[in-house]
Amino acid sequence: MLGLFKRKPENFFSEEEKHHIMEAVKQAELRTSGELRIYIENRCEYVDPLRRAQEVFHGLNMEQTAQRNAVLIYVAMKDRQLAVYGDEGIHTKVGDAFWNREVNSMLQHFNKNNYAEGIANMALAVGDALQKHFPYDAATDVNELPDDIVFGR
């Protein structure tokens, strides 16, 4: 895991697209106590991108949220692979059908080369699910994880 953040991927997004993605993450998190992160890298080290997403999830210490309600959107741009990994708190609420449906929706955007829009829409959809099961409470909510896009190798 030491190599998790070694090399930066090519600049796949314009500044405007990065801003659009980060705004979607912020909008999603305003409505929930859940946490959402975006991780972008060039290549996936594994045949199964979900396995890589799980490794990144733990490398970013996302399992340490109080309610185990963090979600990682993982994309390997050059390999054209993606996965969404939700911690046990949110996964037990929404199940595999939700993740599969939303990944298919994101793929529809990716197939049209609308990567930023696909990621932003996924962030908002995850935010909706998190809001339903982990609503925002101003008295207790703490932003447990950074909202920036993480660019890996």
Keyword list:
Diaminopimelate Epimerase, Chain A, domain 1; disordered N terminus; alpha/beta; 153 residues; 4 strands; single chain; 4-stranded mixed sheet
Question: Your description of this structure?
Answer:
The structure is a single chain. The protein is of the alpha/beta class and about 150 residues long. It has helices at about 15-30, 50-60, 90-110, 115-135, and strands at about 35-40, 70-75, 80-85, 150. The protein is built from 4 helices and 4 strands. A 4-stranded mixed sheet has the order 3-2-1-4, with helices on both faces. The termini are close together.
> What percentage of amino acids are in beta strands?
15-25%
Q: Whole-Å distance between the termini?
A: 12 Å
Query: What is the structural class?
Result: alpha/beta
Mean of the pLDDT scores? Answer: 90
Whole-number count of domains: 1
Helix-strand pattern = HEHEEHHE
Low-confidence stretches: 1-7
The shape is globular
Task: Give the gist of this structure.
The protein is α/β, with parallel strands linked by helices and 153 residues long.
Outline the secondary-structure elements:
Layout: H1 15-30, E1 35-41, H2 49-59, E2 70-76, E3 81-86, H3 88-110, H4 115-133, E4 149-151
Parallel strand pairs: 1-2, 1-4
Antiparallel strand pairs: 2-3
Helix pairs in contact: 1-4, 3-4
